[in-house]
Design goal:
This protein has helices at about 25-30, 80-95, 105-115, 120-135, 180-190, 200-205, 205-220, 230-240, 245-260, 270-275, 310-315, 320-330, 330-345, 350-355, 355-365, 380-420, 425-440, 440-455, 455-480, and strands spanning about 20-25, 45-55, 60-70, 100-105, 135-145, 150-155, 160-165, 175-180, 195, 225-230, 275, 285-290. It has about 475 residues and is α+β, with helices and mostly antiparallel strands. It is built from 19 helices and twelve strands. Strand 2 (about 45-55) and strand 3 (about 60-70) form a beta hairpin. The strands form four sheets. Strands 2-3-5-6 form a four-stranded antiparallel sheet, sandwiched between helices. Strands 4-8-7 form a three-stranded antiparallel sheet. Strands 10-12-11 form a three-stranded antiparallel sheet. The protein has five domains: about 1-205, no CATH class; about 205-305, Arc Repressor Mutant, subunit A (Orthogonal Bundle); about 310-365, no CATH class; about 380-415; about 425-483, no CATH class.
Length: about 475
């Protein structure tokens, strides 16, 4: 790691790759893209949320970011984030954030982000910039207004416009003019930025390592020890799949943490110190910056880790302190069940919850209220649905086995019929078939006749075979006994 205190700012006109770029503090907080390097077909929306403590008044605020992409462009990827960081570095280099419009060549941006200087990189670069003009970002209580010192709601496109001039000789020489969106650029000008070691960032091997580094580097600014709820960090700030169980999250984070330890950014920790139990199925994760003396007591985080259950209570009007006491005192299953019942009563505008919704919910959890008449918990609905699916699968399996059994028996009978007829001369066979048609069951004969009329060869063959089998059985019964 370079020392950010002694590192010089890159020159205004230099074509060399800037050692230190800039990162938007707002861009860091929630993932703006997928962790993969390719967009996922059919997936056009990302949603991230958490609960944080407001820096100015200490109140808890629920934040949410929604990322929506047109199907033509798809969601941004990990590579697109690299392009965005490169554009931030060039904006600092070109005009020190004095103008929202940035003029640069493809090659300049390629060098800033450390990509290979080849044709595919230039094509991929333009695709990325176009995607940043198309994707829509909706921040709810999640965009920090550095002038007003509060979380606000904003909706915007990161880039307002993009002009790509056709290259005269090579793709590398084509000039590009990009214009930052008003809200994003306003945040830059309000100096809600931090230095970013682009060399170190690009040296990291995985997108998880890169995203974790950016997030931690922002929050290490005031302290050397950070502690987060494991799943909140992984799902809402790194962007990992919410399908992962805690053990799987640890497994997926492990290579990124090991890389940050190996490169000298993080202090290596024993797993027992890295992961701290925080209740049934809950874990805290701890990070200590390398070459820093850890605090004896964790400093009060500006951004606090709130469990999903506590966040649900807060969202329904229960105070943060009461929510914390409830989740610490009562089983999660009990709280979850009362939350479901509360939402059900609220949707029905039940008088029991209309006067004081939060007060009713708190009391319901404390006294473990009986579930209201007509209410069915999600777990029971899920169990019933799973049972119905199981029965459907079982019935399908039974029908399939019965059909296979009937088909096998029909094949055996058909082979016996073919063998019986094969022993006859052509004239005898024709007479035998005619006799079967004349003497067979009326119902089967009618079905055979109808199948022939409508030219249903398969049905006609089946009914004819039934008539012949019946004729063979009659012939067998009429034969004199060998005794």
């Amino acid at each position: 790691m370079k020392n950010p205190v002694t590192a010089s700012l890159f020159a205004e006109s230099s074509m060399e790759q800037p050692a230190y770029g800039r990162d938007s503090m707002n861009f860091i907080e929630f993932p703006m893209s997928l962790l993969t390097e390719r967009s996922q077909e059919g997936k056009n929306e990302l949603v991230f949320s958490d609960t944080v403590r407001n820096q100015s008044n200490g109140e808890l605020v629920t934040r949410r970011l929604t990322v929506v992409a047109p199907a033509k462009y798809g969601l941004p990827t990990a590579k697109d984030e690299e392009v965005l960081l490169g554009l931030l570095a060039l904006t600092k280099q070109k005009n020190n954030f004095s103008a929202c419009t940035v003029h640069f060549s493809r090659r300049e941006l390629i060098r800033a982000i450390g990509w290979n200087d080849q044709g595919y990189s230039y094509q991929r670069l333009i695709e990325s910039l176009e995607r940043w003009t198309a994707v829509f970002f909706k921040y709810e209580n999640a965009w920090w207004d550095n002038a007003r010192k509060e979380w606000i709601d904003v909706s915007f496109h990161v880039l307002n416009s993009l002009r790509v001039n056709k290259p005269k000789k090579t793709l590398a020489t084509g000039n590009v003019v990009a214009e930052w969106g008003k809200d994003a650029f306003g945040s830059f000008q309000a100096n809600y930025l931090k230095q970013l070691d682009l060399d170190f960032f690009q040296s990291l091997e995985t997108s998880v390592s890169k995203r974790l580094f950016r997030y931690l580097d922002k929050h290490f600014y005031h302290r050397s020890r950070l502690e987060y709820d494991l799943l909140t960090l992984a799902f809402e700030h790194v962007g990992m799949s919410r399908d992962y169980e805690p053990w799987k999250v640890k497994q997926k984070l492990s290579p990124a943490i090991a890389e940050l330890e190996r490169t000298g950014y993080l202090e290596p920790l024993d797993p027992k110190l890295r992961y701290l139990p925080a209740g049934k199925g809950k874990w805290k994760i701890v990070f200590v910056k390398k070459n820093e003396v850890p605090d004896t007591k964790p400093a009060q985080e500006v951004i606090v880790s709130v469990s999903p259950l506590m966040a649900k209570l807060i969202a329904r009007g229960v105070s943060a302190k009461t929510s914390e006491n409830l989740t610490a005192t009562f089983p999660g299953e009990r709280i979850g069940l009362q939350l479901e019942a509360f939402d059900w009563l609220l949707a029905k505008k039940d008088k029991r919850v209309s006067r004081s919704p939060a007060g009713y919910l708190v009391k319901a959890i404390q006294e473990d209220f009986a579930l209201p008449m007509g209410f069915e918990p999600e777990s029971l609905r899920r169990r019933r649905t799973e049972e119905a699916k199981r029965r459907t699968v079982e019935e399908s399996r039974r029908r399939r086995e019965e059909e296979e059994r009937n088909q096998a028996e029909a094949d055996v009978r058909r082979k016996a019929t073919d063998a019986y007829l094969a022993g006859m001369s052509d004239e005898d066979r024709e007479r035998f078939v005619a006799s079967a048609l004349a003497d067979g069951t009326r119902f089967v004969i009618e079905r055979y006749t109808e199948a022939v009329r409508v030219k249903n060869a398969k049905a006609a063959a089946m009914y004819l075979n039934m008539l012949i089998e019946a004729a063979i059985e009659r012939a067998a019964c009429s034969e004199p006994s060998s005794a």
